[in-house]
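Annex B. Sample input.
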Amino acid sequence: MTLAIKEGEKAKALGEVPIGALLVKDGEVLAKAHNLREIHQQATAHAEILAIEQGNKALNSWRLTGTTLYVTMEPCVMCGGAMIQSRIARLVFGAYDPKGGACGSVINLFDKEDFNHKVEVTGGVLEEACSKILTGFFQELRRTKKEAKAAKQKAEKEQ
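Annex B, continued. Sample output.
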C-alpha cells in the first residue's frame, strides 16, 4: 500500500485526485499507476483502470488471475466492474469513499451473487495515511478556488 500511496502523490503533483494503484502477482509488481483523468481528459483514466491495462500487457492476457490490486481509495463501480471482468483475485484498498465507493460505501458490487467471478476485498488498510492525502488535496483545491473567486470579484470591482 505504501507504493500505491507514492503513486497517489504523483497524481497530486500533477493536479489529479491523488489516487494510486499497484497490481501484484506472486510478490512481483506488474503495474503501478495513478489517476490521469484531468491530464488525459478521459473519464476512464482512473488509477485502477490504468493498472489493469498495464497488467494485461505485462501478462499478455486479459485475465489477471492470481493478482492483488492495491488502491489508496475504495474503487468506484466502473473500476470494480473492471476488476471482476479481468478476474483479479484480491482487492486491498485504503480510504473509504462515501460518495462513490463500490465496496460497501454506496453499493457493494463485490457482494453480488450473480457475477461469475468473486474478488476478495480488504478495506481500510493504511486508511489514515490514504485519507490524509485525499483530504489535504481537496482542502487545498477548495482554498485555491475560493482565492481565485475572491481575486476575480476584486478585479471586477476595480473595473
